[in-house]
């Protein structure tokens, strides 16, 4: 069955004159070229439902004319890419990463900060901030007095994503209190305040985080190295060559001995393996020399 037939069968309101297989292919090519996102044929309906409001708002009568628009208009193209991203995330996702960080990585960094050194973290593909705050809560830790002391030191976290709507939510730093349930009690008590159904991230955490719009496939304006990079459940949307190029860039951007955490279904392959050693499932460390 072609996509057009599938559209007709499953969504009677979609006319082949408005959206067809050629349009789906064109949008897939743009998403891949611009953001590395691979959209297999099975996503044809998802593309239709995510993009048709933009087609309508733009005043274009068909997807074909909207595609001409986005080829020429970078701002509209950015909106299309944002609409095609999947931003699903939650607090303390893949808890074993935070447990590993707390027991194996954090103590050395806390020492370094107390000796006057600096620590730089990057949540690459942070979506709406749940990963960012989970990492910072883990860093400041269960001892509130120690956490407040750490927060005054030279610790910074960059949280980046291509989806600006997700970053807006991240900056608001307010979630439903029930969303925080996966976070260990002591961390939740120390670093959030609950009011009614809402939980607000503590100001001490907020002042450590910078949220930036960044396409991981584009240039990275950050000058320094990172001690820890979390890039989880982002590369699943990319093809192999794109993944390999990206992890090689992450490996370059890590400080010697720095840590890379990736999503549970992802693996590092390719040239990055010359620079990284495996430390556990989906946890890698940059070799020191
Ligand atoms: C499923 S979320 C993962 C969020 C979080 N890291 C986690 O594991 O819960 C994937 C995020 O990657 C972002 N993303 C996809 N392609 C990107 C790209 N080329 N550059 C930057 N971010 C991208 C999406 O906008 C989305 O917010």
UniProtKB/TrEMBL annotation:
GO terms, biological process: methylation
This enzyme's EC code(s): 2.1.1.80
Transmembrane segments: none
Residues annotated as binding S-adenosyl-L-methionine: 87, 89, 93, 131, 161, 215-216, 232-233
Protein keywords: Methyltransferase, S-adenosyl-L-methionine, Transferase
PANTHER family referenced in this protein's UniProt entry, alphabetically: CHEMOTAXIS PROTEIN METHYLTRANSFERASE
Name used for this protein in its record: Chemotaxis protein methyltransferase
